[in-house]
Amino acid sequence: MTKYGVIVGSIRKNSYSKGVAKAIAAGLPEGSEVNFLNIADLPLYSEDLDADSPAIYEQFRKDVKAQDAFIFVTPEHNRNIPAALKNALDVASRPWGQNVWAGKPALVASQSISGISGVLAHHSLRQSLVFLDMPTMQQPELYIGNTADLADDEGNITNEGTKEFLSGAGKSFSEFAAKFIG
Fold it and tell me: Are the C-beta atoms of residues 66 and 105 closer than 8 Å to each other?
């Protein structure tokens, strides 16, 4: 059974990013284990903490290491990824030489309530994943715009065409990830 970690860049209650992530996960094979990892409570990363990391850092690193593959869904904050997402990437890639993201296949999706679809955050995240040594699925590209029109008040995607597209991406990702999972 493949374990898929899900990292949602938005820490907002009823986030559209979480709704997009759930719609992608719906396309994963039956029996897959899907784990939404919480990034909201991670203290800001500081190299000063490497020698004696807080327990929450250690638990997050352990949780990341336990996953086989990752789905990242991010909104765009000021033309980049949210601070909480960047912090999570940093926490699990440190101390230096102990990057627990390495080798894990990834899918990147971005969303925005505007038509720009979080494209700049999407590409910024991809750049970080290259450095973290995560093979990242290239197609289909998942830029989801106007999400407020595609979702309900809880952030769940309700537009049938969008749900079908995202579910299909989840299926494609499971096939992509299988190439890297031993």
Answer: no
What is residue 74's three-state secondary structure? strand
Tens-digit pLDDT profile for residues 56-107: 999 999 999 999 999 999 999 999 999 999 999 999 999 999 999 999 999 9
> Domain of 77?
3-178
pTM above 0.85, yes or no: yes
**CATH code: domain of residue 45:** 3.40.50.360
Per-residue pLDDT at 182: 72
What total of structural domains would you count in the chain?
1
Query: Which residues have CB under 8 Å from 50's CB, separation 6+?
Result: 94, 95, 96
Q: Residue 172: CB partners within 8 Å, gap ≥ 6?
A: 27, 137, 139, 140
Q: Which residues contact 120 (CB under 8 A, 6 or more apart)?
A: 76, 79, 80
Interhelix angle 16-25/160-178, rounded to 10 degrees, is 60
